[in-house]
Amino acid sequence: MAGATSDPRLESNLLATFFLQTTMDLVLLLQRVFDALFNSAIYSSLALALVIIFRSTGLLNFAQGEMATFTAYIAFVLLAGPQPRLTGGGLAGLVPGVPFTVPLAIVGAVLCGMAVGAATERVLIRPLGGASDLALVNITIGLLLATNSLMAQWWGTGPRIFPAIFPSGAGQHFTILGARLRYSTIGVWIVLLSVLILLILLLRHTRVGLAFRAVSISPSNAELVGVRVGPTLMYGWAMASGFGALAACLSANSVLLEPNMMLRVLVYAFAAATLGGLDSPKGALVGGLIIGLSQTLIPAYVPFIGFELSVLPALLAMVLILLIRPAGLYGTKRIERV
Amino acid sequence: MSTPLVVVAKDSAEHKRWKYVQWMYLAGFLILAPLVLEPFEIGKMNRALVLSVAILAVNLVVGFNGMLALGHSAFMGIGAFVTASMVQDENWDYWQVLPVVLIVGFIMGVIIGLPALRVKGLYLALVTIAQAAVFPTLVNIDELGIAARTGGPNGKGVSEEVIAPGFLEWLPGVEGARGGSAYRYWIIVLMLGITLLVITNYLRSRPGRAVLAIRDNEAGAAVYGVNLPVAKTMNFAISASLGSLAGLMWCLDKGFVAGQDFTFLLAIDLIIGLVLGGVGTIQGSLVGGLFVVWVNDLTKRISVPLGLYTLNGDGPLAKAIFGLILILFTFFAPGGIVSLARLVQSKLIKVVPLTPSGEPIQPLDSMDPGMESTRANTAMKMAVIGPVLLAVGWLLMAVNSLIVGVLAFGLRMTILMAPVAMLVGSNELKAHAAGNRPDSVKGPASMARLLGGLGFLFVIAYAVQRFALNYDF
Fold first, then answer.
1. How many domains is chain A partitioned into structurally?
2. Range of B257-271, B400-414, B416-430 with top mean pLDDT
3. Which residues of chain B make contact with A130, given a CB cutoff of 8 A?
4. Is the ipTM of this complex over 0.85?
5. Which residue of A215, A300, B328, B333 is most buried, as measured by CB atoms within 10 A?
6. pLDDT digits (tens, 9 = 90+) for A139-189
7. Which fold has domain B31-302?
8. Residue A215 belongs to a domain
């Protein structure tokens, strides 16, 4: 034993192995981080949608994921036209085959999603007025069930291949320190960040944005100074659903388009939104990053948690943050008046 | 029909008669169900009653304590897996597992409730949804021998059959082809009955009233000396324990449990049942369970041809209909079916409470404007409509056997309306004898009493005949 360690040749060899091992581990770590970034972007954008609605209307939209999936199907129909696989009757058969390009189809889907969101607010949420939390939860759960099964009815439950918006072939990636950063990851983040900047500009520098901020702080006071609360909330829902639509369209390529596509994503997005604070857009972004990274990294380094359990750390994180700091990382504390 | 058909003083002989009728209906429904239904339909009934217990568990937290806990599918799963594991691996009896399941559920409720109840409203909804979402994957963990106990992704079957012992074969339906499922039906009914009794009494007890007070005004309850964390956690734990009991009943009924049975979708089913039945009412939980299973069954039969393709309720559409019903109920009947039933009941009967001295608070005469009463006519119509439908159905059946539905509908109308018509008719006759009604009331009232009485006799004869058929008298 003593002889083995004192052998200088072997020692240098050991050192080399150690270095090689460390660098390989580092590269692997970097690779995992890069892989996680894609999912993080998706979680962040869906979490943003949840946050916008929670801020303005004070409710959790359980149907957010299904509404997003619906718009992804719209984009698919816009792209593919009435394909024989799609004509089972229903909506798909009615849409003429227009030669849309992928980005154009996604823009169309986002616009459609905004219309759906606005209509939901107008038809289902506003008439309820100040109903209880349970009633609002029921409405969104009903919407979730209805949307999900209507999609299954119209387009079938089988997964469909959604075309990629960014090049995502075998060789299409940057190589940074030996780890691959895909173009699609970068593209998704560029889209997400630019839309986020647009949103911030809209909120800070336009009349509509000002009205929206006023309504989300205090609807009754905003109404007193002449803000039309109803339409403003409707814009908020439209904006949120647009975000959801974007998330669905961007992720549809990697997770395959099917009616239950966003259910799992929705759980992660809830966790992300809670982690960051349900009323903070910045928190949604950070929360999405944390959840995405933990989902990839923790199963990789903690042997106890297999990949099928990757949902566990995210949810544990959510429960923990709710217990320690119920408002979330960036959220504002609620003060209850009796 | 703005005035109720019958006005009775509380605890009067007539009020008691109404109560007896209600209890007779309940007993008749329970006893006839395993005799009339096919074995697979009894299976559905069992499932509905099991869901009722689970919905009652959710109701205890959501309806009676005002906390949005949506994850009771996980507690059901825990109960079901503990049962399956104990019965299959350790050869325990179901009755021996029962206390274990209750205690395990209670402890799980404390463990999850203690932290979860620190957060409020929608935040609690999030935590409990997380609990429901993670449970099906937890079942598959290989460590700690969990997967070996739960059967992992394949699920776990329980080979022990539940068969009636010899001394219980007299139970309706247990003998013969329906045997197994009918016996399980009786076990489930017994468990459900005990549960209802216990929960009703719990809600009337001191801790139960504390729980209700927290729902109505949390700060007020605290001021009146309710220990909020203890009351909430205990209530949550009792609810979890009840949820586990539902899991045990599920395992007993199906003989097979798998992680996929206890997903978030089951939690949503429970919420639907809760809202449809009636939030915050004991009867609502019962109705909700029946409704969830029954509506699901009905939607599966839908088949509408629409040009090139047919709209089948068998596929994914069932969930859409559930979603639609949930939204419609939230808008138009937030109190659920129970509130609708109470609306109907308020048209039928009004119970006038008594003063401490035993007199009705309002004199019954003021409820009973006397000469211009139209009740006798209404009662006569009610008494006539059932037999007429029966006759029409019988005639049509001779022409075309497809119109059995009218017959069945007439039967149901008779069953429902005959005793009401009989009671109202005799009531009006009594009023006439006392000089409070014109002579023109006498004809319709005696008609209603006669036809209603005959209908009621017919209903009883029907029940007796089912019994005779079953027992070969």
1. 1
2. B257-271
3. none
4. no
5. A215
6. 998 999 899 888 887 777 777 777 777 776 666 777 777 777 778 888 888
7. ABC transporter involved in vitamin B12 uptake, BtuC (1.10.3470)
8. yes
